[in-house]
C-alpha cells in the first residue's frame, strides 16, 4: 500500500489496517513520534464504517488531523460535539465567574488556618475548581472528593498549615455546599447563572446520548477525562482508543488512562518513531524500562534540518529563569499565565499577598521558604528576580506575548511542550530531589521526562538531568569503542509477527536492557568495572555502517 506516493506503511501500520478491516473496536498504543495520525487515516479508510468521527482535546489537533484524513472522517473536539447537541445559552456561556463572585453569591467568609488567611475569594475559586473536577468525572453529583486539596489550591503551603487536617476539612465542607448549590443553578435551563463549557458537556453526558456515527476514533486516550470514557463506552458505535500510556501527564487533575481501563476487539502497537534517531531513543528506552514497558522504541528518524531549539523545564519558575538568560528574542510558552504569576509576585513585593503567593506575608518570607528544602521549586524565580529585577522580567514576558510567531528558540514547561517538536532540545535540571539533595524520580516524573526528551527531532542535551537519568540506567561514558558498538540497536528486519489479532508480548526485558546486561557481563569478564552504555546519534549511525560492512564481508 502506498500513501499518496509519499511513503509505504510499516508492518505495524499494516497490521493495524488489517485489524480495522475486520471491524469492531481497537486500541492503538502509539509511542512518541510513531506516525499516529497517518495510521489513523489508514485505519479509517480500511474500516467498514462509512462514517468516522475523530475526537481530539483541542481544536488545533482536530483541525490538523482532519486535513490529513479522508473524506469519510469528521474531526472535532468532544466539547464541539456537545455544543451542537445542547445548544447552550451564549449569554450564560459568555459570562465569566470569579472566586469573588461565587463568594458573594453564597456568602462565603474568610477562614484562618495556622494563622494563614483562606480568603472568601479563594474559597470561591475552590468552588469553581470543584465543579470543574465534577464535570470531568463520571460522578452523578458533586462530592467531597471533587473539592481540591490544599496543595492544589496554593502553590506553596507552610507545613504547619498543611498539617491542620481538621481545619482544612471544615473549609472543604463549606466549599462543597456552595458547589452543590451552584451546580443546581447551572443545570437549570431557566436560570441566568453563568455556565462553562464543562457544564454543558457534563449535562450532555448525563443524558447518555448516542453519537450518530459508525466509528469513533478517540485520540490522546492516555489522558482522558472520566466523563469522556463513561460517555464513549456507552456508545453503540465501536471506538478506536489511541494514545501512549507513558505520556500520561495529567493524572494530577483527574485524567485517567483509558487504554488501561477499556476493552477492545483488537490491539495494535506503533513502536517506530520517525521523529528522532538513536540518541533520543536510547534515553527514551531507559525511561520506558524504568516505567515497566516491555516493548522497545526504535528511532528511525533524526534527519531533521530544523534550526529550532527548545529549553524544556519542569516548573514555571525555572522557565522564567531560563527565559531571562536567553540572548535575543525567544518564545515563552504559556507567557499569558506566567505574566499573571509575575503580577502576583510583584504585588507580594509591594506588601499585598494574593493568588499563587497568598499564603506568604511578605517577599522576605517567600525568599526564606525558597532556601528551605520544601521550597526548592521557588529558588529559580527568586534568583531571576535578584539578578534581573521584577520589572525587567515582566517587560520581557510581555514582549514575548505580543511578539513574532516564528521564534527559533522556545522556553517551555514540559507540560506545555506536549504535542510539539523542535530540531534541538535541552532539558533543564529543575527535577525533584530528596531532602539531602539526592535526585528522586517517581513514575509521574519519569513520564514527564519521557515526554520532554521525545520532543527532540535531532539533538538532545541531557547534561542537566544526568543525575536523574542515572537512576534509570543512562550515563555519558563514550571512551570505549566496545561500549559504542554495544549501544547500536539491532537492525530490525521485521515488526512483530503478523496475526489476525496482535497480542501484546509477555513481559520481558527491552532490547536496550538486554544490550546493557550483555555489555555488563563482557566488562566483568574482562575485569573491568561495569558501566552503562551511551552513544550519540551520529556515532551510532557511523558504527552501524561499520557493522554492516563487516557483515557483508563475512557473507
As a percent range, the share of helical residues equals 40-55%
Q: Total number of β-strand segments?
A: 15
Q: State the major sheet.
A: 6 strands, parallel
Separation, N- and C-terminal Cα atoms: 32 Å
Q: Which value, in Å, is the CA radius of gyration?
A: 26 Å
Task: Quickly count the helices.
Answer: 24
> Pairing-aware structural class of the strands and helices?
alpha/beta
Mean pLDDT: 84
Strand order in the largest sheet: 3-2-6-7-1-8
Strand fraction equals 5-15%
Overall shape: it is globular
Low-confidence runs (pLDDT<50, min 5 residues)? 1-5, 484-512, 528-536
Task: Give a description of the structure.
This protein is α/β, with parallel strands linked by helices. The chain is built from 24 helices and 15 strands. It has helices spanning 11-21, 36-46, 59-68, 78-86, 90-94, 99-105, 120-135, 150-153, 159-162, 165-187, 197-206, 226-232, 278-290, 316-325, 335-349, 363-371, 379-388, 390-402, 414-417, 443-453, 466-469, 481-487, 511-525, 537-554, and strands at residues 26-30, 52-56, 73-77, 111-113, 116-118, 215-218, 239-243, 266-270, 272-273, 298-299, 309-313, 331-332, 409-413, 422-427, 456-461. The strands form four sheets. It has a six-stranded parallel β-sheet with strand order 3-2-6-7-1-8. Strands 12-13-11-14-15 form a five-stranded parallel β-sheet. Mean pLDDT is 84; it is low at 1-5, 484-512 and 528-536.
Amino acid at each position: 500500500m502506498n500513501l499518496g506516493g509519499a511513503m509505504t506503511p510499516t508492518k505495524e501500520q499494516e497490521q493495524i489496517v488489517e485489524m480495522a478491516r475486520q471491524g469492531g473496536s481497537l486500541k492503538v498504543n502509539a509511542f512518541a513520534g510513531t506516525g499516529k495520525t497517518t495510521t489513523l487515516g489508514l485505519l479509517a479508510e480500511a474500516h467498514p464504517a462509512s462514517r468516522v468521527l475523530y475526537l481530539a482535546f483541542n481544536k488545533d489537533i482536530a483541525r490538523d488531523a482532519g486535513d490529513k484524513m479522508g473524506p469519510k472522517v469528521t474531526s472535532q473536539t468532544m466539547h464541539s460535539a456537545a455544543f451542537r447537541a445542547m445548544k447552550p445559552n451564549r449569554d450564560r456561556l459568555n459570562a465569566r465567574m470569579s472566586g469573588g463572585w461565587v463568594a458573594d453569591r453564597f456568602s462565603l467568609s474568610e477562614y484562618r488556618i495556622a494563622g494563614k488567611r483562606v480568603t472568601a475569594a479563594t474559597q470561591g475559586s475552590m468552588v469553581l475548581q470543584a465543579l470543574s473536577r465534577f464535570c470531568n468525572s463520571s460522578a452523578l453529583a458533586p462530592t467531597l472528593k471533587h473539592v481540591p486539596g490544599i496543595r492544589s489550591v496554593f502553590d506553596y503551603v507552610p507545613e504547619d498549615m498543611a498539617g491542620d487536617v481538621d481545619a482544612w476539612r471544615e473549609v472543604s465542607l463549606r466549599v462543597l455546599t456552595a458547589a452543590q448549590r451552584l451546580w443546581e443553578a447551572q443545570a437549570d435551563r431557566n436560570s441566568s447563572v453563568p455556565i462553562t463549557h464543562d457544564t454543558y458537556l457534563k449535562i450532555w453526558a448525563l443524558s447518555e446520548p448516542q453519537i450518530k456515527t459508525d466509528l469513533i476514533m478517540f485520540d490522546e486516550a492516555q489522558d482522558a477525562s472520566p466523563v469522556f470514557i463513561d460517555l464513549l463506552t456507552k456508545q453503540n458505535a465501536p471506538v478506536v482508543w489511541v494514545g501512549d500510556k507513558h505520556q500520561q501527564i495529567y493524572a494530577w487533575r483527574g485524567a485517567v488512562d483509558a487504554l488501561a481501563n477499556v476493552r477492545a476487539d483488537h490491539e495494535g502497537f506503533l513502536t517506530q518513531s520517525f521523529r528522532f534517531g538513536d540518541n533520543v531513543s536510547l534515553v527514551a528506552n531507559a525511561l520506558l524500562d524504568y516505567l515497566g514497558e516491555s516493548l522497545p522504541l526504535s528511532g528511525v528518524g533524526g534527519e531533521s534540518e530544523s534550526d529550532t531549539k527548545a529549553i524544556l523545564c519542569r516548573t514555571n519558575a525555572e522557565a522564567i529563569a531560563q527565559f531571562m538568560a536567553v540572548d535575543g528574542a525567544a518564545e515563552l510558552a504559556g507567557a499569558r499565565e506566567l505574566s499573571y504569576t509575575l503580577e502576583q509576585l510583584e504585588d507580594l513585593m509591594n506588601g499585598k499577598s494574593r493568588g499563587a503567593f497568598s499564603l506568604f506575608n511578605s517577599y522576605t518570607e517567600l525568599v526564606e521558604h525558597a532556601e528551605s528544602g520544601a521550597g526548592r521549586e521557588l529558588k529559580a524565580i527568586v534568583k531571576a528576580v535578584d539578578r534581573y529585577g521584577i520589572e525587567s522580567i515582566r517587560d520581557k514576558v510581555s514582549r514575548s506575548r505580543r511578539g513574532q510567531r516564528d521564534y527559533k528558540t522556545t522556553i517551555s514547561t514540559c507540560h506545555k511542550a506536549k504535542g510539539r517538536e523542535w530540531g534541538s532540545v535541552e532539558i533543564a535540571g529543575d527535577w525533584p530531589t530528596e531532602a539531602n539533595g539526592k535526585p528522586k524520580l517517581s513514575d509521574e516524573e519519569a513520564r514527564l521526562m519521557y515526554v520532554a526528551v521525545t520532543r527532540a527531532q535531532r539533538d538532545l542535551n541531557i547534561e542537566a538531568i544526568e543525575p536523574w537519568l542515572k537512576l534509570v540506567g543512562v550515563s555519558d561514558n563514550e571512551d570505549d569503542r566496545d561500549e559504542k558498538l554495544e549501544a547500536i540497536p539491532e537492525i530490525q528486519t521485521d515488526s512483530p509477527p503478523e496475526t489476525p489479532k496482535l497480542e501484546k508480548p509477555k513481559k520481558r526485558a527491552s532490547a536496550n536492557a538486554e544490550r546493557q546486561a550483555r555489555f555488563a557481563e563482557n566488562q566483568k569478564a574482562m575485569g573491568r568495572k561495569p558501566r552503562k552504555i551511551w552513544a550519540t546519534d551520529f556515532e551510532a549511525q557511523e558504527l552501524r555502517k561499520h557493522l554492516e560492512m563487516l557483515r557483508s564481508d563475512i557473507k
